[in-house]
């Protein structure tokens, strides 16, 4: 009886490279990590790496893109189930983060990759696309939850999206620097408090 060999799909290969790259980046630093080390950590040859990405920079952009896409998908799924902002925030708080992509599981690596890309001016437009996608996601959430809460005119969704995103990144950085005084749920607690304050002010 012949044995059928199943070749990994392109998505499987990319996912393994993402996971391997995250481990190598954390161990060796993004700048010091080589393509050979990433490919070996994933169990692939150098040729397998180049069949998916032309460079380490392209791999990094792909990891950031994948992180944004997964974040958008996850949040929109939650929003479809919890259109009230308080319920949505609670669903975010209790979400299982162990199954997220490498950047979702490691805020430090996520921040390091953003800084690595931002240091080169020519790379910044690509990074800006990811920033706009994250901002649009928050703007859509603000719009949907405000409508469901009867506050259509209470907030400027675009500006609120920008403020909320800056708040999230700020708390992420603060937690990396001083985790003792910055609990893991600081961002969600802040958004919950702001939501309550806006509710009182508009009542």
From TrEMBL:
Classification via Pfam families: TetR_N
| Phylogenetic lineage | Bacteria, Pseudomonadati, Pseudomonadota, Alphaproteobacteria, Hyphomicrobiales
> What domain of life does the native source organism fall in?
Bacteria
Q: Does the keyword Membrane apply?
A: no
Annotated GO molecular function terms are: DNA-binding transcription factor activity; transcription cis-regulatory region binding
To which species is this protein native?
Answer: Bradyrhizobium ivorense
Q: Which residues bind DNA?
A: 34-53
- Record domain HTH tetR-type: where: 11-71
Q: From the Swiss-Prot or TrEMBL record, give the protein name.
A: HTH-type transcriptional regulator YfiR
**Alphabetically ordered keywords of this record:** DNA-binding
């Amino acid at each position: 009886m012949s044995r059928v060999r199943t070749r990994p799909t392109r998505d499987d290969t990319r996912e393994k490279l993402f996971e391997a790259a995250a481990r190598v980046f954390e161990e060796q630093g993004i700048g010091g990590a080589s393509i050979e080390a990433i490919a070996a950590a994933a169990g692939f040859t150098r040729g397998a790496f180049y069949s998916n990405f032309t460079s380490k920079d392209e791999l990094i952009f792909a990891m950031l893109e994948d992180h944004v896409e997964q974040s958008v998908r996850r949040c929109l799924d939650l929003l479809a189930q919890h259109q009230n902002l308080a319920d949505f925030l609670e669903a975010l708080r209790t979400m299982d983060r162990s199954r997220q992509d490498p950047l979702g599981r490691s805020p430090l690596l996520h921040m390091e990759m953003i800084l690595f890309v931002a240091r080169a001016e020519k790379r910044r437009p690509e990074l800006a696309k990811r920033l706009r996608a994250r901002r649009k996601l928050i703007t859509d959430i603000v719009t949907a939850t405000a409508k469901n809460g009867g506050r259509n005119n209470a907030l400027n969704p675009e500006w609120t999206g920008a403020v909320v995103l800056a708040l999230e990144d700020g708390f992420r950085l603060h937690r990396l620097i001083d985790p003792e005084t910055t609990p893991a749920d600081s961002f969600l607690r802040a958004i919950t408090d702001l939501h309550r304050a806006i509710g009182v002010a508009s009542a």
